Automatic annotation (TrEMBL):
Name of the protein in its database record: DNA starvation/stationary phase protection protein
CDD domains assigned to the protein according to its UniProt record, in alphabetical order: DPS
Ferritin/DPS domain ranges (all copies): 44-184
Organism field: Lysobacter arvi
Record SUPFAM superfamilies: Ferritin-like (SSF47240)
Compositionally biased intervals (Polar residues): 18-28
Region feature (Disordered): 1-32
InterPro entries recorded: DPS_DNA-bd (IPR002177), DPS_DNA-bd_CS (IPR023188), Ferritin-like (IPR012347), Ferritin-like_SF (IPR009078), Ferritin_DPS_dom (IPR008331)
Basic and acidic residues composition-biased segments: 1-17
One of the Pfam families matching this protein, by short name: Ferritin
Similarity-based family: Belongs to the Dps family.
Length: 184
């Protein structure tokens, strides 16, 4: 059936399935982890990367748009956090590649795979307490996703991914605690 000129393409639906694309050399990878386990780990890491990128973007957005009596301390705290998060994004994407799959890298992919909602910056910057509340929730969401990936990786004997997820859990649990303390 032909599409009419005025029809807009269907908006991608959020799905639990991740259409991972193996790299050209994926079939030749023999690192002691089965192809199916590598795929499952890479799918989890793709969700983790998407949550992490969305949290990074939200943290950077709030750094730019913070106002009020907490401006200076939160501006600096948010910058410290998003700078550290940026470096970790690369480590996660490189782990997906090492497992033989392409890493998600577009806003559309990140939105589809992330469990963290976007936050508008240009039109509706929340007050500092709401920013902090959202960043607590975001860091907790990233920690939950990391735990799932860690379990999958551990069951498959993927120690590098277990190590990466352990490090990220420590970081995001610490960020959530530090931010949560501001609301007490």
């Amino acid at each position: 059936m032909a599409k009419a000129k005025n029809d807009k393409p269907a908006k991608p639906q959020k799905s639990d399935k991740s259409p991972l694309t193996p790299t050209a050399s994926s079939q030749a990878i023999d690192i002691g982890i089965s192809g199916g386990d590598r795929r499952n780990i890479a799918e989890g890491l793709s969700r983790f990367l998407s949550d992490s990128f969305t949290l990074y973007l939200k943290t950077h957005n709030f750094h730019w748009n913070i106002t009020g009596p907490m401006f200076n301390s939160l501006h600096v705290m948010f910058e410290t956090q998003y700078t550290e998060q940026w470096t970790a994004l690369d480590e996660t994407a490189e782990r997906i590649r090492a497992l033989g799959f392409n890493a998600p890298g577009s806003y559309a992919e990140f939105i589809r795979l992330s469990s963290i909602p976007e936050e508008p910056g240009l039109t509706e910057a929340p007050d500092w307490k709401e920013m902090v509340r959202q960043l607590v929730a975001g860091n907790e969401a990233v920690a939950r996703t990391a735990r799932k990936v860690l379990k999958t990786a551990d069951e498959a004997g993927d120690d590098p991914t277990v190590d990466l997820m352990t490090q990220r859990l420590q970081t995001h649990e610490k960020y959530a605690w530090m931010l949560r303390s501001l609301l007490e």
